[in-house]
Design brief:
15 strands, 17% strand, alpha/beta, TIM Barrel, 438 residues
Length: 438
């Protein structure tokens, strides 16, 4: 421990961590609780810096905030903050750049996979939103892993980041939700973790053949195995499992689907909850959102036929393309606009401020190290059946989107982590490897 080796007491190491992570102190000179000689040693040896480069901030009419960050390698990831009138603040964070799951109704899934995020990159997304909340006299109350990527395909970094959020940001395990499209082995592994987070499973239809068409992972892990893993998770963690269900008009919103879903989740009676999410449109999927009447009937059947509690979520952040599955939609639209204006690939460089185009980055060969790593919207509750309170803290904000210069009140790169001087030079792709957290 650097603090102890500098001749200070072990408790001062904790003081230092609290100043960095809880007080969000951005300069060693501001750390008045720390002995002067230690502050000087820290200044001589380290500087506080972050892995993420804020490219743009967007603020919705409903208060939703979306940040687009540049990361090492030139990719863009996004983070969303949902702010509620009751004081809750929920951050939706990304675990990967892009997504390999190829879900047909999700623009992110159609955009392709680039790489896993490091635990530093994941943690810093939550840290930045916690910093914003603190600047507003509030606190970050919830974190959901529902941004870009499949969290359980980046298991080690996701769970490490979740532990850091719990330890350094003071977010309780029950207020950290890890989402998955259905990686059964990793769900079983997650059930053994000491940090018992909330689990959310993207289901979207109770029929195996239908699910395989819209979610290819279902061909590997059938629904019956997924439900069995969910039962195991609930029993081992004493946490109710949430099932995400995106309602698509004429495809999965019939009464037959509702009755079937109630039967499928029968083994999880008292252990599960369903989030009903009317579909947001994307250019790669022709489906439409279910009607309000269809949603109402679907929800009633879940309760009457299976005593399955559920919530319906109102769209939020749609005016800034922060809806579920829409974020990559905005990216594609922006790229198309600039391409039409310039007629060549340099248009993309103009947008992302990178020497290599998005297309080149997306299709480039991976290094051996990268191969080792590879394998939005939230809402207020408008109806809640079988629950006595608002139960949904989930934000789904999938995709990559913003690629312009920073703007807005909080458009800045927030310094966060400890790194040796010179480690954070522009374009240095090895920042993560040279970053040392206290």
């Amino acid at each position: 421990d650097f603090v102890v080796s500098a001749g200070c007491k072990p408790f001062q190491s904790k003081q230092l961590r609290d100043l960095l992570y809880k007080k969000h102190t951005k300069s060693f000179d501001e750390m008045m609780y720390i002995p002067k000689h230690l502050r000087q040693d820290l200044k001589d040896t380290f500087h506080i810096a972050g892995c993420l480069d804020l490219k743009k901030e967007l603020v919705s009419r409903d208060g939703t905030i979306k940040h687009a960050y540049g990361i090492a390698g030139g990719s863009i990831i996004e983070t969303v903050l949902m702010r509620y009138k009751d004081g809750r603040n929920t951050a939706c964070i990304s675990s990967q750049a892009g997504c390999a799951m190829n879900c047909s109704f999700c623009a992110t899934g159609q955009s392709g996979f680039t790489r896993n995020l490091t635990h530093e990159e994941i943690f810093e997304q939550a840290y930045n939103m916690a910093d914003f909340c603190q600047s507003e006299g509030q606190r970050l109350s919830n974190v959901v892993f529902m941004g870009m990527g499949e969290p359980l395909n980046n298991y080690k970094n996701v769970t490490k980041a979740a532990h850091m959020m719990n330890t350094h940001l003071g977010i309780g395990a029950q207020h950290i939700t890890i989402s998955t499209v259905g990686n059964v082995p990793k769900i079983k592994k997650l059930a053994t973790e000491k940090l018992r987070t909330t689990l959310a499973i993207s289901l979207h239809t109770p029929y195996e053949d239908e699910r395989a068409k819209i979610m290819p992972i279902s061909t590997k892990y059938p629904i019956c195995e997924l439900v069995h893993a969910a039962v195991n998770y609930a029993e081992n963690t004493n946490r109710r499992v949430t099932f995400e269900y995106c309602l698509i008009h004429g495809q999965n919103d019939s009464q037959k689907h509702a009755y079937k879903l109630a039967r499928v989740l029968g083994p999880m009676k008292g252990l599960s909850h369903v989030n009903l999410i009317p579909l947001n449109p994307t250019p790669t999927f022709e489906g439409k959102a279910s009607t309000e009447e269809s949603v109402r009937v679907f929800q009633e059947i879940l309760m009457t036929a299976g005593a399955i509690p559920s919530t319906v979520r109102v769209k939020r952040g749609v005016d800034i393309d922060a809806g579920c599955g829409q974020l990559a939609d905005s990216l594609l639209k922006d790229i198309a606009k600039v391409k039409r204006r310039s007629g060549n690939k340099s248009a993309i460089n103009e947008m992302i401020g990178s020497e290599s185009s998005f297309a080149e980055d997306e299709g480039s060969e991976q290094t051996s190290e990268e191969k080792k790593k590879t394998h939005g919207d939230d809402s207020d509750i408008i109806q809640s059946f079988g629950t006595g309170k608002h139960t949904s803290d989930n934000i789904i904000a999938k995709g990559v989107n913003v690629i312009h210069a920073p703007s807005g009140k909080h458009a800045k790169s927030n310094p966060r982590f400890w790194a040796k001087p010179g480690a954070l030079e522009a374009g240095d792709a090895s920042v993560q490897q040279r970053t040392a957290l206290l």
